[in-house]
Structure formats: structure tokens, C-alpha cells
Amino acid sequence: MALATWNEPTPTDASAGMIPESMQTKPAETSPANFPIGETSLTYTATDGSGNTGTCIITIIVIDIGDPIVTEYPDDTTIDTDSGQPIALYNWTAPVATDNSGTLVIVFYEINGVIISSPSYEFPIGPTVVTVNVSDPSGNSVADMFTVTVQDMEDPNITCPTNSSNYYSSISADIWVVHTDNGESFATVTWDLPSVSDNSGNTTFSEPSYSSGNMFNVGVNYTIVYNVSDPSGNENTCSFTIVVEDHEDPDITCPMPLTVSTANDANSGTATWVIDATDNVEVASLEEDSNANGSFTPGLNTTTSYSETVEIGQLTVNFTATDSFGNQASCSVLITVLDEQAPDIIGCPMDIIVNTTTGEAFAINVTWMEPTATDNSEETPVPVADYTSGDNMFAIGDTTVQYNISDSAGNFNDSCSFVITVEDNEKPMIVCPANVTMNYIGEAFGLISVSTDYGHPTATVTWDPPVTSDNSNATVTVVSSPFESGDLIPIGTHTITFTATDLSGNNDTCDFYIKVEDVEPPTPNCPSTVAGVTDPGSPNGTVSFNITVVDNVLIAMFATNYTLITPSSIDMVYYDFETTAVFPIGETIVNYTFVDNASPTGNQESCYVMVVIEGMFSLDNNC
Q1: DSSP for 100-131, written as a single string
Q2: Does domain 69-151 have CATH number 2.60.40.10?
Q3: pTM > 0.70: yes or no
Q4: CATH number, domain 429-517, options 2.60.120, 2.60.40, 1.10.286, 3.30.70
């Protein structure tokens, strides 16, 4: 506050002069009076009788020129960094200060050019000067300084890797096993650098005795130690141990499947082969599960020769190669022993000749001594044929009985065969025909009578073929003699012999009896009427006329009821003759009867001629 004095204004009016107090308005303050720092306005007003108002304002300005008074500043201090941080958060007590203005002073701090108002700050590692500024609202100020020293007492953090290249397994978090490089007795091991951190943000590594990318020999344990420090000299270490082991299996090579043949007359064959085994360290042993003969020598690269005698069939020999670290690899040899020797057939039968079974076209149950067999496989194969002794059927002719034999390996022997010849020595059966089909007359006592063909001295005779059968069931050839069906057979009794012959040449006969009879009469042709006149000086008349007669056989005789006819006889099949005779006046019937020489009795036929003779009278001139 400040005490101020002033002269109050006196209001006047042009028309009324002085304005009475009652027409004035004044501030509460009267001179002298205390005023606060800053500006304070005092307003005076006056109003005349006409209502006009005048105003006067007095401004009181109080200026603060006194500095704040600080009774206590913060002291210098040393603190540790916050855990895991490169800073320390420090809260200090604000300075104690008063000011004549009676108002709160303004305090701010300047740290490394940064102005803050709160008494709290994150200080970096090391000393930091804090400038304290205290000012009042009028800008009066005082300043002082204190130092905050942050010390880093925290060790760096370091975490070693937990695996690496060639990693195989872990024994513990900081001990692990790596495997050797492929084909090598060492391991080239690389790993990530340890993970490090520090609250300061700055670290320094020390080089370990072994570096990432080094080669590490098998069978040795290596411990790698890393050391890290920060700028404040704080240190920390980590370590891990690498155990180099051989986990690479040996490389073993077996040959392709082997195929051998049995030795002659033996049931086994001998196979030979080579096993190659290599390892990056050493092949310590080579074992097999059979009885193969071989001599193994340990080493990096081994080649071992083996042989074994194996029976017919297949045998798998398994080989296991083991290195000095117990790693194993296996392979197999497949040995196939082929039996390529055919079995032997013993006691092959000789050829056999037999007759057909009576009434049959074959021979039944022919017997023979069946062969046996031996084989190098020690099997007892049985020869096999299409026919079995004592239970069979063989057709007429030659049949080859083939014995074949195979062993289990498929070897085949067909060297045994013999011929069974079935001969047909049985006659065929024949039954002569029972009738004929043309010109049949009748039958008596086995003799069949037939008639001659019309107009012919022979008979065309046909008959059913004879009935034949044969045990062979084959076609039987039938021949007839002296005539065959359909032949022209002359008049008379004939024996026809049928001969049946089978395919084997066996034959039998039967007789067939035919009698050819002529039952056809002659055919005469007489003129119906012959006219004549009496001979001169005679009561009779001589006439001639032609008669024809036809027959299938000779005409043996003819007869007439009239004498004195020429010719008196004929002996011809066909005859055309002129007959001459003397007939009395009037009508004379002449009967001609012709008889042929048919067997057994002649056939006859007649014809008639009427001869008419007329008298011829001549008158004598002496009458």
C-alpha cells in the first residue's frame, strides 16, 4: 500500500456558479488515503439545476520498487539415478520469500536453459546448476543457485544368448550343446551378441576369449565370458558354455539288391558285396544281423567286403554303422537267390498200345507207372499230367500224355511224354434195308419182289440205306455190291451184299435179296379189219396185213386161232411183220396171242383182226 494525497475538484456551473454538495457524487476515498499497488480511479460527478452532468476522474498510481525478500534457498544435493533410468527425479523445497506487495511471489527455475515453475525435475547423470528466480508482480526480482549432482550407482544389465548356430539342445540356460559342421570334426559357431542395457544408455564391451564365428573342436567344452561397463565405472558380466558334440550320423552305403543263382544241384548260392561307411569323426563299429563273413576296421572312411551263402529265396541283411559318439546309420542288402535249375523227372513210361473198351469209342482206365521227380531245392515236386493212370479215357488213335513239373521257383521240365495208342479192332454193326421205295411188288421169306420199269427189261430199284453203328461213333462207310440203290437191275433174283467199314478198317456185311419180275405184257397192234377178195378160180381169198408187237423183253412165242399163217413164230422185243393167209369168203376173226419170256411165267396179250373175203365172179363169154 502507499499513502497518496490529492486535491479534490471544485465543480462550477456557468449559470449557477458553485454546485452544492447535494448535487455532487464523490468517491469513498478522501485525501490522504492508502492505495494498493497499481492504478486506482477516483470519479467525481456534478449535476446543475438543468440536469446537466459533469465528470472528473483522478487516477492514483502506486509503483512497487521493492525486491522480494528470500529467507531460505534450496541447498546443493547429491542423489542417485532412478532405478533403470539415466536420470533422477528430484523434488526440492521452494524458497521461502515475502514481498511488500503482500501478494505471492513468483518463483521459477532455469535448468540448462529450460524454464520450469515446479520444484521438481528429472536431472541427468552428473552435476546440474539450478538457478532460482523470485519476482513480485511488479517485476522486482532476486536470484540464487544450487547444484544437483546425480550419481549412477547402477550396474549395467547384460544377458548372454541362450543358443547359437549348430544348436542341438540345452543342458541349462547358459550351457548348450552344438553339433559339428556337416562332414567336419568341429563346429563353426555363431551367436548373437549379448543383450545389454544401462540406465545411462552407454556401455562398453570387453572382447571375450572366443568370438562368434570361431571353430570349436568336437569333445571340448568352451566357456565364453562377456564383460560390460558404463561411463560411471559400473560393471557386469555374463557367460555361457558351448559343448561341442557329434550328432551327425555316419554315412553308410549298401549295394543295390543282389541276385545270384544256386550252385549246381544245390539249394543255395553265395553272394558277395561291399559296404562303405564314412563319418566326420570316426566309424567305430559296423554290425550286421546275419552270418555274413567280413572284417571291419574303424576309421573315417571304411570299405568292408562281405560274403554269405544264402538258401533259395530272399534274405535281407541289415547293417548298422556306429561312430565314436554313438550316432548310427543303417542300410540293408537284399539278397535274392534264384533257383534256375529245373527238376528232374524219373521213370517216364514207354509208349502204350491198348484196344478200345467194348462198345466204346475210347479206352477206359488205362494204367501205367507214374513218374516221380527230384529237385535241387530239396522240394519233392509231383509231376502233373492231363491224364491219371487208372482214371482216364483215351479216344481212338494216338494221345500224347505229357508230364510237366515245376518247382516253387517256376523252373519247368516237360521232358517226359509218351504215346497211348488206342486201336479200334471192333467191327461195325450193319442192318440191311427192310424195303425198297420203287417198283415194289411184295416180299416173301426175305425176298423182295420188284417190277421192271415200264418198257424196260430192268428195274430201277431204290432202298433205304442200311442202318449202321460203330463203337467209334464215327461215320461208317457202306458199299453195296453188285448194285447200289437207284441202279437198273435186270430181271432175276439178286443178292446185294452191303459192306460197312469203320475208320479203323474194321468191316462187317449183310445181304439184301431182290427179285426183279417182268409183269409187263407185250403190246400188240392189229388192224381192226382187213378186206380181200377171193383168189381167181378159188373160193378163198389170200390177204396180207401188218401186225406190230412191242415188249420190254423178248417175245417168246405167239399163237393164233387160224392156221396157215406166216410167220409162225417171233423172238424179238419189237416186231413189225407181215402176215399172209388164205381165208374163206365171209368174215373170219383171227386172234393173235403174244407171250414174252418173262420170269417166272410169260406175260401174254392178244389182239384181233377181222378178215372179210368177198367172192369175185367173172362171166364166161360162152354164157
Answers
A1: TT-SPPEEEEEETTEEE-SSEEEEESEEEEEE
A2: yes
A3: no
A4: 2.60.40
